[in-house]
Design goal:
The protein is of the alpha/beta class. It has six helices and eight strands; from the N terminus they run E-H-E-E-E-H-H-H-E-E-E-E-H-H.
């Protein structure tokens, strides 16, 4: 495996399709960053879904860290605003009419019934579940320190997938069936659950 690429990724909440396209890359290993300083307004604590009113962002509230240099692995989820109920209600409203919502609902509902203390742990357990449902088994490890310079066979994608700056041409995403596509067209690179709930076992064909 010496010639394989090592791709560094950030932690992400129900990450977008492009994140799982990377995780499904041939001959790549992955390092999920857990030593970086927490960065606001990124996929680390938010995801984007297709609702009846176009794209909706779901954000997990966090406990304000004691230091601006707090690492992502130490960020706690704030247990207020009933966010778990609100997120699940939004997901239910957006996807209950999709072909495969009932097929996968019981896989995701437990994440909104259990209290998680740390954002990183919550994201990682969700990632493992999504990989299981997609039928992919990426080789994943976790950072032991924060690297500012990458080796020759390492690729830094920690900021490559971002809700406010798309580094991939939206036209490059292969369109798939979406329930609200007739209302406002195909919406690329939404949360992986959009692909799963709409396409089911065929989701793997789009990553």
């Amino acid at each position: 495996m010496g010639g394989d690429k090592i791709i560094y990724l950030s932690s992400a909440y129900l990450a977008p399709v492009s994140y799982y396209q990377l995780l499904n890359s041939d001959r790549s290993r992955f390092v999920i960053e857990r030593n970086e300083h927490y960065i606001k307004q990124t996929y680390r604590n938010r995801c984007r879904i297709a609702s009846a009113n176009e794209v909706q962002t779901l954000s997990i509230p966090i406990v304000k860290p004691d230091s601006p240099k707090a690492s992502i692995q130490d960020i706690r989820i704030a247990d207020h605003a009933n966010w778990r109920h609100l997120h699940w209600t939004a997901i239910l409203s957006a996807y209950n009419s999709t072909p495969f919502f009932e097929y996968y609902a019981d896989d995701f509902l437990p994440f909104y019934e259990k209290k998680y203390d740390f954002l990183f742990d919550f994201n990682e357990e969700l990632r493992l579940k999504v990989c299981e449902l997609l039928g992919i088994s990426p080789v994943v490890s976790f950072s032991t320190e924060y690297k500012t310079e990458m080796d020759q066979n390492e690729v830094d994608c920690r900021e490559a997938i971002h809700p406010k700056k798309c580094t991939k041409d939206p036209e490059s995403f292969q369109p798939y069936y979406q329930v609200f596509k007739h209302k406002y067209g195909f919406q690329p690179d939404l949360s992986i659950i959009d692909l799963l709930f709409n396409m089911g076992p065929e989701a793997i064909l789009f990553i």
